[in-house]
Write a structure and sequence with these properties.
Elements (H helix, E strand, L loop, with lengths): L1 H28 L3 E5 L12 E5 L2 E2 L9 E9 L3 E11 L3 E4 L3 E16 L2 E3 L2 E3 L1 H4 L7 E5 L2 E2 L3 H9 L6 E7 L2 E7 L2 E2 L6 E2 L2 E17 L4 E4 L15 E15 L8 E6 L6 E7 L2 E6 L9 E2 L9 E7 L7 E10 L9 E5 L2 H7 L10 E4 L2 E10 L2 E9 H9 L2
Parallel strand pairs: 1-5
Antiparallel strand pairs: 2-3, 2-4, 4-5, 6-16, 6-22, 7-10, 7-16, 7-18, 8-9, 10-11, 10-12, 12-13, 14-15, 16-17, 17-21, 18-19, 18-20, 20-21, 23-24, 23-26, 24-25, 25-28, 26-27, 27-28
């Protein structure tokens, strides 16, 4: 009898430990919030059964126009509490998958400091920028109460200063600051200089992720446009898109990621860009083919390990779909690496070696839903890369 009780207690203890371990794992790895389409229930695809239970039973929502937020409890096997989450209800968007390359032209808000340098003067080497506290990556917003939007504007103010102090308002790590810059006269040409290298714009090529036919809004790239020298996200005053042609592919190999080469095919703008953030670039196109195939936007709980396709352009024939495998899923909402993917399509592997630079933004489609976009390649294994949830792009790009 005592032996039976002992076995029972040990078994019960092991069961409790396992339940706590599984619950703890899901408490850490599952998101703190979810979207669900109106009229649907929150269903999670997990190894062990996790049920979403509200005060009145399984979490579901009725049709509503304004997004609603409900508190819901996630429970292991519908019994053991895992964590409380927010469930937000909204009308699930219908999106046109992209896959086409597009040109990106961004004019910065202010000018970004990409480097500082010493200036040779009659009394020796001086560094006015360093002396007043300006650093690489800072954004100069105004000089002597004049808003700065170009390199030329800033250079003119400095060169005409006669060495008098210039009041600089700048942004450092998103904090607005002010300082006094004292330009010095260059010994070589007699021009007053600040010892600064600045940049006011940038341009590049990415891949469109989705369009919304009803609004002409778009999202692309899946990660921010950053400055090449500082690595910082470029704050934009305005931006525009342009049509491009892909004319060459550099095949990727271990340690050397490949690249799509292209050129702007027209000087005319095809749309405007109004946002550049951690999750991509967003804006509005002047025209969208409303007859193109629309797909429902997949939510993060819809994504599962297994086969999927990416839609991308690698030559003049336009976008095509290629087979991939989703091999891991990360639900961290603040990450652009929500999915680890592996290219399995023989044609794509033959032509590109896998994922190459320029494919960022290529839509990922699974089970008839647009679930995300390619964002990065693994440098040491170009067959593999990362993807972002489409839900994250849509939410941060369009302010849902």
């Amino acid at each position: 009898m005592k032996k039976s009780i002992k076995i029972f207690l040990v078994s019960a203890g092991l069961f409790a430990v396992n339940i706590c371990g599984i619950s703890g794992y899901y408490a850490v790895n599952l998101p703190d919030s979810y979207y669900v389409s109106t009229g649907d229930e929150l269903e999670l695809s997990t190894v062990f059964s996790i049920d979403a239970v509200s005060g009145s039973g399984t979490a579901s929502v009725s049709k509503c126009v304004i997004p609603q937020t409900n508190k819901t409890s996630l429970r292991l096997f519908g019994i053991f509490p895992v964590k409380n989450v927010e469930v937000k209800t909204f009308e699930q968007p219908m999106l046109i998958p992209g896959g086409e390359p597009f040109g990106i032209k961004l004019l910065m808000e202010g000018v970004m400091i990409v480097g500082t340098d010493e200036v040779r003067t009659s009394s020796g080497m001086e560094n006015p920028a360093e002396e007043c506290g300006l650093k690489k990556g800072d954004i100069i917003l105004s000089a002597n109460d004049c808003e700065i939007s170009s390199n030329t504007e800033f250079a003119e103010i400095v060169s005409h200063s006669d060495g008098k102090p210039i009041t600089i308002v700048y942004s450092h790590n998103d904090e607005k600051k002010q300082t006094e810059l004292y330009p010095v006269r260059s010994f070589s040409d007699g021009v007053y200089k600040a010892g600064l290298w600045v940049r006011d714009s940038t341009a590049g090529i990415g891949t469109m992720t989705f369009y919304e036919a009803s609004t002409s809004r778009f999202g692309g790239l899946g990660h921010p446009v950053c400055d090449n020298d500082t690595g910082d996200i470029i704050p934009i005053l305005k931006g525009e898109t342009a049509e491009v042609n892909i004319n060459k592919v550099v095949k990727g190999k271990e340690g050397a990621p490949g690249e799509l080469h292209g050129c702007f095919s027209s000087e005319l703008s095809s749309g405007v860009i109004y946002k550049n953030n951690n999750y991509g670039v967003f804006g509005e196109l002047f025209s969208v083919d409303s007859k193109s195939r629309e797909l429902p936007m997949g939510l993060k709980q819809d994504v599962k390990k297994g086969p999927a396709v990416i839609r991308t352009t690698i030559d003049e024939t336009g976008p095509h779909e290629y087979d991939i495998e989703i091999i891991d899923i990360n639900y961290n909402d603040d990450d652009t690496k929500n999915m680890t993917i592996c290219v399995t399509d023989k044609e794509l592997l033959e032509k590109t070696g896998g994922i190459v630079q320029g494919m960022s933004g290529s839509p990922i489609i699974q089970d008839g839903k647009l679930i995300g976009a390619v964002t990065h390649v693994l440098v040491n294994d170009p067959e593999k890369g990362f993807g972002i949830f489409c839900e994250n792009m849509y939410e941060t790009g369009f302010g849902q």
